[in-house]
Amino acid sequence: MTTAPMFSKVALIGFGLIGGSIARGARMQGLAGEIVATARSAATRARVAELGVVDRVVETNAEAVKDADLVILCIPVGACGEAAQEIAHNLKPGAIVSDVGSVKAAVVRAMAEHLPSTVHFVPAHPVAGTENSGPDSGFAELFINRWCILTPPDGTDADATEKLAAFWRGLGANVEIMTPEHHDLVLAVTSHLPHLIAYTIVGTAEELEGVTRSEVLKFSAGGFRDFTRIAASDPTMWRDVFLNNKDAVLEMLGEFQEDLSKLTRAIRRGDGEGLFEHFSRTRTIRRGILDIGQDEAAPDFGRKQPQLAKKAAE
Amino acid sequence: MTTAPMFSKVALIGFGLIGGSIARGARMQGLAGEIVATARSAATRARVAELGVVDRVVETNAEAVKDADLVILCIPVGACGEAAQEIAHNLKPGAIVSDVGSVKAAVVRAMAEHLPSTVHFVPAHPVAGTENSGPDSGFAELFINRWCILTPPDGTDADATEKLAAFWRGLGANVEIMTPEHHDLVLAVTSHLPHLIAYTIVGTAEELEGVTRSEVLKFSAGGFRDFTRIAASDPTMWRDVFLNNKDAVLEMLGEFQEDLSKLTRAIRRGDGEGLFEHFSRTRTIRRGILDIGQDEAAPDFGRKQPQLAKKAAE
């Protein structure tokens, strides 16, 4: 018995880590009859064709979306408005149009004004990723056990939302629905602030007087190296995130600054009790994340550990 | 042919992650004729005996060091002065006395005043660890390809320093020698500041209004979860680090604050170019760390990735 795929034709606009992972996962799970992809640069399009993970690579956004039942913009949030404008006149009536942006309110505003009322606009954000980017970086398993947040505007067709939710569940994700504004506040703390802090501290370490760059690299296993992974994320994507979620990020930065001042004061005053109390409290958050399976329980994220050769028998 | 072990008797005072890893590594590599361990709590001592990874467990620090050729304090830096006092009169002349503290200047001062001139005091800091602690958390491979920093005071016997260096190389580590003051500055940026920042941001996320704890946990894969690992480190150890390396940590915090203000201003003003330039620069630091083998090149630290079941054959 042949089951019809969830969507006859899926169009992916942009083919970085997220677009490439959707393509590979959707193909593996048979979620699409046909997957068509496009990308802005000719080099990326050539590489996608070479990889052979989609059915067709086309040159323009407008061409990609023709006859597609599901269109997903997998590009930096700053580029979504223009892309929506480019595809608007070629969208099939009844199609679902979505995105994967890490910011929702600004992107929804930028896209919605261009989209015709004949399509269903269901914005989405899969909370998953690695520090890599580009057409080679994606993999089918990226979304497994991760959350995909949908932020359908008021009045969105419930069936369209459910259909997109089913697609994400097919890729292994859990789905949650919230408003764009609430999404932006939640992600400001679970993603945007951590990235900003990591970008900051890695920059700080690079410019120090008295400590060489070589020392920073050599002794990075003391904690610093963890931050460098996040600070190696795609610069264009993250520039757009901060420009488009300014208010929530600045609000979280304010909270962070207050807490940092409090801990700084405790250090300056030698308040061991205050430090101990704080450091004990944060431990429980880690446990909570492990309990719900949102991180690796193995020590050190399960980083590979080289082996010591056993001493030769005497 | 039997090779004599490097040290006839090694005494480990304290048996957490580091002490337990030294014991396991030294035994596997045959670096010690006998390993004697002790710990402050009776429960830990009982567990160490049960684990069977050392030759003997004794009740007091003074008893542990009798006849030992190498004594290593593997306890929080705040406890090292008192422990040095406790063992001073039982140390064998010619013995090497060392520690593993993450802070050096303050610890060296606290220990040196108690140690007799008949022993060789060679302070050490293996820059390695995981977020776990306690007698079960150690493993023989912890130090492989990591750096162990020795900070011998002026006038230390060169043979003693070399003998301790050889011991650490036997555990798989690379050895570097520097002054305690320089160590404390380098580690303030590669280890202490990152821990303080992680402890801060995890605390911030826990206390927010408008975002629930459950949301923070669920959507932590956006970057936040990386910080929770570090913020799950041993509270006693880290309290002591900040109390004992106050000046260098406050200096690094000042640098960090300046850089954070600069990035905050760029966000507030919508300076995309400035953000992009900064985010591109930090990427190269990550590459430097991978190039010298101080982190896992696999995406996401090589975290285990669950598999998608292949769609059933049609």
UniProtKB/TrEMBL annotation, chains A, B:
Pfam families documented for this protein: PDH_C (PF20463), PDH_N (PF02153)
Boundaries of every Prephenate/arogenate dehydrogenase domain copy: 8-297
Gene3D superfamilies named among the record's database cross-references: 6-phosphogluconate dehydrogenase C-terminal like domain, NAD(P)-binding Rossmann-like Domain
Keyword Amino-acid biosynthesis: yes
Family assignment from sequence similarity: Belongs to the prephenate/arogenate dehydrogenase family.
Annotated source species: Rhodopseudomonas pseudopalustris
Top-level division of the source organism's lineage: Bacteria
EC nos: 1.3.1.12
Residues making up the signal peptide according to the UniProt record: none
GO biological-process terms attached to the record: tyrosine biosynthetic process
Record key words, sorted: Amino-acid biosynthesis, Aromatic amino acid biosynthesis, NAD, Oxidoreductase, Tyrosine biosynthesis
Enzyme class, spelled out: oxidoreductase
Name of the molecule in the record: prephenate dehydrogenase
PANTHER family hit by this protein: PREPHENATE DEHYDROGENASE, PREPHENATE DEHYDROGENASE [NADP(+)]
